[in-house]
Specification:
The protein is mostly helical and about 200 residues long. It has two domains: about 100 residues, no CATH class; about 100 residues, no CATH class. It is built from eight helices and two strands. A two-stranded antiparallel ribbon has the order 1-2. A hairpin with a 5-residue loop joins strand 1 and strand 2. Helix 1 runs antiparallel to helix 6.
Amino acid sequence: MYLLAFLIAYLLAKYRANLSQDWSTKQIDDLIFYGALGAVLGGRFGYMVFYSFPGFIANPLIFLDFQNGGMSFHGGFLGVLLAMILFNRKSKKSFFQTTDFIAPLVPLGLAFGRIGNYINAELWGKVTTNAWGVYAPDQSGMWAQRYPTQLFEALLEGVVLFLILWLFSQKNRPLMATSSLFLIFYGFFRFIIEFIRV
């Protein structure tokens, strides 16, 4: 899922760069490379620290065991922030120029991540009797009909947020406007979904 997300982000970034003339092909290549590296390494490190710390301390090489999964949104976010700082030093772009440029691309990555959560049976919602409930286990293995919050998040934080930001960013906007809009709507959508998450 991540590979598909990075590929789509790369193609959309190239398209955006052609429209703005402020970004070179080399800068786009570097931006996506740094961002992907930050997301994967940060996501993995965050998972180790937040959710598997005793195992990580006992055997630090499990960090490299990507086959058994384990990515953290928080770690990925911090990894991408660090990657953007490094990219900005190299490219001489300001931090907010970069975040405004990539903000419309991020929701699709979030959507693919949440679809991955659905496929891996992670992050289910509360028990429900509604028709859209999906029969799934919780962390303790108890099966019940649950809200498919991963799919709701993929729709709201992914598709809807992408459309809002993509359309908003088609015109020249003040610095930080697109980044701010991302934070506002991401927070709003996440707040809504939290009411039905476990």
